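Reading is simple: each integer encodes one residue's backbone shape. The lines below illustrate:
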Amino acid sequence: MRLHLILPRVEPTALTLLSICPYEGCDGTHFRFLQEVGKPLRDTTYPKVLVHRYECLRCQRTFRVYPKGVTQDHISQRVKGLGMLLYLLGLSYGAVSLALEALGIYMCKSRVYDAVQAAAERVPGLRQEQVFAHMRTPAVGGDVTSVQVKGKWFPLGLTVDDTSGLVLTVDALWGEEAVTLQAWLAPIAEAVGAEILVTDDADAFKTVADELGLDHQVCKSHVKRNTEALIESLQSAVETDMDGSLAAIGVTAEQAVADLAVRGIDLQPATRRGDGTGDHAPPLSRCPPSRQRRESHACLSPATALPGPLELMGASDPLSHLARSPWGDAGWHQ
């Protein structure tokens, strides 16, 4: 697919006088020039442009005439167009804001949202999903957890279509070794024509992806948790700078900790929020963050409400005996 990029241009000298008064109820066509004023602008090229103020001789009200690519808003049409382009290419509103900030233009994610919604009203069918509607790579997500049936723990495997979020299978497994996982995932991946396997970062899943010839992707919830865990493990090293690496690059320990805080990373476990676990996680990615919380908060995945495959374990009433495993940190992929 070829994308033809056409962004609105900003031309500071291109000012076109209106042919009729912009105010409702006035059809005046004669205006008097009042003054030329400067307007601060957030743009990739022009930090400031000049606008003209006019007075309608009929209603005596004033209005402004803006250069091409500039409106009453302090953000140029060019920047808004670039933000909408990045969003349609798959970035989230927050990611678009960060990308523009890296280019030296600040546009908060709420303004990105407003720009996208305004464009959607003018262009019916303008949706992020439609840009790559026919270019999605088939992917299957797999995860393993454990359920308790009549006092015994059994491994349970879940597969989903990662392009649509549809649950494909819920199967009883007899182990979590690479050979067992490969025998479980191979026919499913072949049936859906998957090219990517999305799992956690367990070595067994990496082996399965290599054996099946699939690209392997680690789900972002696991990446986020692992990254946060690594940062917490390095907290003492950052605070004390025991190896002198921070001093070698001219950064103080206080500055390093402050930089992490500015990026929204809270190193104190007691105040961490939104880690995608526990009661704050979405239903298909919910998993308890610690052993203590696992034992005090029972968490039953909605996938266990599908009793078919569980009957292989010999439970006469599987749902009445299911409980979430207090060990293992598996999470459902969405």
